[in-house]
Amino acid sequence: MKYALIGMLAACAALAQNPPSGVLQEWEVQKLMQNLEAQTKHLPGVIAQIKPDTWMAKGAPDTYLAQWNSSQAELKYLLTSSDALIKQPERLTVALETYFRMQALDTMLGSLIEGIRRYQNPSLAELVQGVVDESSANRDKLRQYIQDLAAQKEQEFAVADKEAQRCRATLMRQPASKGRNNQN
Fold first, then answer.
1. Is 166 among the domain residues?
2. Does residue 179 lie in a domain region?
3. What's the pTM?
4. pLDDT in tens, 31-55
5. Cα angle vertex 26, ends 24, 32, to 5°?
6. CATH code of the domain covering residue 32
7. Backbone conformation region of residue 61, classed left if phi is above 0, alpha if psi is from -120 to 50, else beta
8. Residue 57 gets which letter from DSSP?
9. Is the alpha carbon torsion for 95, 98, 102, 107 positive or negative?
10. Rounded CA gap, 44 and 159, in Å?
11. Which of 60, 136, 161, 163 could form a Cys-Cys staple with 55, CB 3.0–4.6 A?
12. If you compute the radius of gyration of the chain from its CA atoms, what whole number of angstroms results?
């Protein structure tokens, strides 16, 4: 059993050292997140230019103000989760959280862009759209990394499960110890 456990650990270590082709290395994920973070840091200044509270006088629904507030909060959450992913790029849950935060922010900004065009300034709407579009390539890379990382984690689990089943079968085939037979 000791050798089976060692074999299982060696197999998992080999997968961690040599991930399946397509899985970004730790430094690549960190660079991706640093690029994404640099692009995202443009957003606070751009979001500050959006004035949905003045849109109400022009007939805009007050939901734009709620979306603007939500987009500011989502931006902070995104920056926090991307920092966590830089520190722990192998954590699938952190990668998923970062991706979902990006999606939520993009959705909020997409809705706000329409309001900006209609109630504030079409060129500001284009600026916001440009910032969102600029991050799309990195967002797509992050999505692909998440898929690859999930596949790698599934493969690691399959190896661990196979080894555990093999160990269990080995233990089941071993004869009962003499100590147990004498107790009867």
1. no
2. no
3. 0.72
4. 887 888 787 777 888 899 999 999 9
5. 70
6. 1.20.120.230
7. beta
8. G
9. positive
10. 45
11. 60
12. 25
Mean pLDDT, to the nearest integer, of 167-174? 85
Domain count along the chain: 1
Q: pLDDT tens digit string along 47-87? A: 999 999 999 999 999 999 999 999 999 999 999 998 999 89
Instruction: State how far the Cα of 148 lies from the Cα of 145, in Å rounded to an integer.
Output: 5
Q: Higher confidence at residue 3 or residue 120? A: 120
SS3 for 33?
Answer: helix
Q: What angle do CA 138, 139, 142 make, to 5 degrees?
A: 85
Q: Find out whether 122 and 23 touch, Cβ atoms under 8 Å.
A: no
Of 49, 44, 52, nearest in space to 115 by CA: 52
Give the tokens for residue 95: 């990668």
How many Cβ atoms sit within 10 Å of the Cβ of residue 177?
A: 8
Domain carrying residue 37: 24-152
Residue 3 has pLDDT above 50, yes or no: no
Token pair of 173 as six digits: 């085939």
Is 167 within the bounds of a domain? no
Check residue 59 and report its DSSP letter. Answer: T
Portion of the chain with pLDDT greater than 70, in percent: 83
Q: How deeply is 149 buried, as exposed, middle or buried, from its count of CB atoms within 10 A (0-12, 13-18, 19+)? A: buried
Domain-located, residue 131 = yes
Give the helix/strand (H/E) hosting 151. helix 136-173
